[in-house]
């Protein structure tokens, strides 16, 4: 686990939490019939989730040399049996890291984060792949700012398909259209109110 935490550049406190989580799994006899490596990787992933760190299961599984499904299943077991206090991961949490991976300028990163946060407030991100949605926000923000980020580049850093990026971009476009309509309605109400005075 120390090697995995080091490879993922996690702090000592997160590493220690992962070790404690693994020990708890051992004490609760959750290792029986399961891969020790998968439980170790799931412990690291769980510690990341509990601390609000945006890590993909794929990232952790790749570093741990365990299948993604093995880590996912082990994490589900840990979460169900130990009741981890993990918060849901939101797309806005992934924007800074993905923007860094894509070497996006600050304007694109800030616009993407705004898009993600607005979508979260409206509830359109419920049930979506958070990293995929964040990558779509970066793609859309890049297009708006004149940086021609490709769907393929965005999909690669988020470990999703280009179809996922396109689908999330469609949702973002619909969301934009609704926002513009709301602004136009508010503006026309203000104009009518001022003219009736």
Descriptive labels:
197 residues; mainly alpha; Cyclin A, domain 1; 2 domains
Q: How widely separated are the two ends? A: 70 Å
Tally of helical segments: 10
| Overall pLDDT level | 83
Q: What's the number of structural domains?
A: 2
Shape: elongated
Low-confidence runs: none
Specify Rg, calculated over alpha carbons. 20 Å
**What is the CATH architecture assignment of the largest domain?**
Orthogonal Bundle
CATH class of the largest domain: Mainly Alpha
- The CATH topology of the largest domain comes to Cyclin A, domain 1
Instruction: Write out the CATH superfamily name of the largest domain.
Output: Cyclin-like
Order of helices and strands: HHHHHHHHHH
Judged by helices, strands and strand pairing, the structural class is mainly alpha
Percent helix, as a range, is over 70%
What does this structure look like?
About 75% of the residues lie in helices and about 0% in strands. It has about 200 residues and is mostly helical. The mean pLDDT is about 85.
Give a summary of the structure in a few sentences.
The chain is mostly helical and 197 residues long. Helix content is 74%, strand content 0%.
Question: How would the blueprint of this fold be written?
Answer:
Elements (H helix, E strand, L loop, with lengths): L1 H6 L4 H16 L8 H15 L6 H8 L3 H15 L8 H11 L4 H17 L7 H15 L6 H8 L3 H34 L2
């Amino acid at each position: 686990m120390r090697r995995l935490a080091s490879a993922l550049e996690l702090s000592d406190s997160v590493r220690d939490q992962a070790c404690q989580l693994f020990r708890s799994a051992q004490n609760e006899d959750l290792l029986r019939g399961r891969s020790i490596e998968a439980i170790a990787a799931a412990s690291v992933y769980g510690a990341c989730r509990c601390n609000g760190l945006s890590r993909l299961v794929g990232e952790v599984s790749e570093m741990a040399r365990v299948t993604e499904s093995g880590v996912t299943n082990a994490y589900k077991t840990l979460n169900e049996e130990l009741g981890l206090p993990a918060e849901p991961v939101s797309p806005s949490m992934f924007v800074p890291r993905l923007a860094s991976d894509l070497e996006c300028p600050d304007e694109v990163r800030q616009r993407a984060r705004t898009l993600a946060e607005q979508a979260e407030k409206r509830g359109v991100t419920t049930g979506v792949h958070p990293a995929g949605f964040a990558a779509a926000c970066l793609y859309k923000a890049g297009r708006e700012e004149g940086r021609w980020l490709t769907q393929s580049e965005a999909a690669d850093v988020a470990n999703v398909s280009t179809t996922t990026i396109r689908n999330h971009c469609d949702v973002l476009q619909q969301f934009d259209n609704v926002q513009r309509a709301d602004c136009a309605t508010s503006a026309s109400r203000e104009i009518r109110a001022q003219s009736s005075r």
